[in-house]
Design goal:
Number of helices: 5
Radius of gyration: 21 Å
Helix content: 40-55%
Number of strands: 3
Low-confidence stretches: none
Mean pLDDT: 84
Oligomer: single chain
Length: 95
């Protein structure tokens, strides 16, 4: 069987509804979970605006991972740090 024939067969399998259903039915442990978020992803995950995240980072409450020393360098947030911050902000209000 040549390479083109194999590619064709694989494309048919991957594009089939059965394949999509099988992938969707995979257990959660088999799916890869993201650990680090870009700024837009962190905003969406935490439900906070980028400037709010930045203020927490500037105050030392939310560590950042800066991939480049330049001012416009890419910033990542660790999911565990975001969870820890949100947990620390949780309060029990009595009404």
């Amino acid at each position: 069987m040549n390479t083109e024939a194999m590619k064709s067969i694989l494309e048919k399998i991957i594009s089939s509804p059965e394949f999509s259903a099988a992938i969707g039915a995979m257990p959660e442990t088999a799916k890869i979970e993201k650990r680090y978020f870009t700024v837009p992803e962190a905003e969406k995950y935490a439900g906070l605006k980028r400037w709010t995240l930045w203020r927490f980072s500037w105050r030392g409450k939310l560590p950042i991972i800066k991939l480049d020393k330049a001012r416009s360098g890419k910033i990542l947030y660790d999911k565990a740090d975001i969870d820890k911050l949100l947990k620390s902000l949780k309060s029990n209000c009595k009404s």
